[in-house]
């Protein structure tokens, strides 16, 4: 990759053209992340920004890598690549026709240390959604990484969230928020056919299975339960 | 625990129904003579019993689903209660359909326990424990776990979010007035190589067109001039008298058309007098300044006029009161076509000139060939075929 970084003359484009393309990709990533509430951006979309004017086959990969570096050095963002280990049953037919490269997508995460992030970056206006994300991921994780839809709602009901609730005072349409977690690739839907029809299962997807996220979630689950046990002991 | 598979004893008689042999859990078969009954009344009772049995199994499965947290709890006796209930129901099972219900109940029970075993990987924390802890830690209401299920609990989702946000480190992106543009893949046009045309060395100057013909007055302009002259002489005339042409409906419409232009230009005005008649009188056109300032304002109305109205107008206007003269040269088509229709001679070709209604410009010339064709000979003398030749 260093060769590519040092020499872009193989693409028959000037430094200015290269910088313009990188800037365009960075701009697109930043705006799209905001517009889509953190849902992954398909690699195909980023490639199109390049291929609409330039025909070199390996130019999009080079530009995306340059954009990755720019996002890291300037914004402190990490452009993380997601790739489904296996397609979910709900969109299996569509994805099976695509190649592995096409299935790739990108998400942006902060590279700041936890303390700095908490102090300066954390958005209080959307923290309720982060809280919901954590709770759902924890429930699925404690169920062994996969949980039936009715079982999930059984536990969420105990916390005052109902499947039919479209006007929750904090979360609004709860079912829609859960669907957003699927789009953001924290969860993955899976339909399983049984004797009594199809059952919908939720399982952890790439972003929830990510090493650091998974470990921290487990850690915090233990922390909550232990803290609670300690409180009970004192009482 | 051993479960016996129920078998159905087949009698030797072909038409006799098979009587079930029910085995107890211990494996001891019942006395068969007690079960042998008449077939007809027993069948209906059997169906009803089986339905009740299946509904009991359904109730057990619901109980397993609702008490899944308690079942896996070490201190709870719930598992023993449910498994005993399933065992008792199993003693009444006789047919495959009930065996399926029995198996499903056991499967549910096994799945519940399997899930609780999986949770050991997370330091032995069960889902129920975790949810209870969340409610205690972040629950807004002062509600103990013993309170009624229907009582509302509310979790402080923001507080949880603030606590866990560094785990996810999500980025919100950038919000500006311009969002990401729609990024649609444009279809590339296939490359077409063209020969470069050699530029001509000599330049030519286009001929200058004589525009004297453009200044010629149209029929409408002439009609307007004639009409305005009549108005200037008569000062006040009835609208019907002004536009009516008794011998031509088309020319009446043309007169109305000319009048509409005079009114539009501000050179004539139409008012309704006391008796309800439309009176037309001439006037000077307003100055450009008064039009711009809005002093001179136009008011419009729709004048309905068709062939029936023309007939009515002819009756309303006395003969000789028509003011606009009849224009002879307006429709040469009629005058030239008439001789062709009257002449019964051999092959005569009559050119027909089609003119626009009031512009006097030739749009199309055609020749009508009145010569009868050979195959038309048997059709009688009165029938002719016309061939139209376009120049």
UniProtKB/TrEMBL annotation, chain A:
SMART domains from the UniProt entry: MAGE (SM01373)
InterPro entries in UniProt: MAGE, MAGE_WH1, MAGE_WH2, MHD_dom
Domain MAGE: 18-228
GO cellular component: nucleus
Protein name (database record): Uncharacterized protein LOC107895013 isoform X1
Originating species: Gossypium hirsutum (Upland cotton)
From TrEMBL, chain B:
Name of the featured protein: Non-structural maintenance of chromosomes element 4
Biological role stated in the UniProt entry: Component of the SMC5-SMC6 complex, that promotes sister chromatid alignment after DNA damage and facilitates double-stranded DNA breaks (DSBs) repair via homologous recombination between sister chromatids.
Gene: LOC107959331
Polar residues bias: start-end ranges: 332-351
Location, primary (coarse class): nucleus
Quaternary structure and interacting proteins, as annotated: Component of the SMC5-SMC6 complex.
Biased composition, class Basic residues, residue ranges: 189-198, 382-391
Family, per entry: Belongs to the NSE4 family.
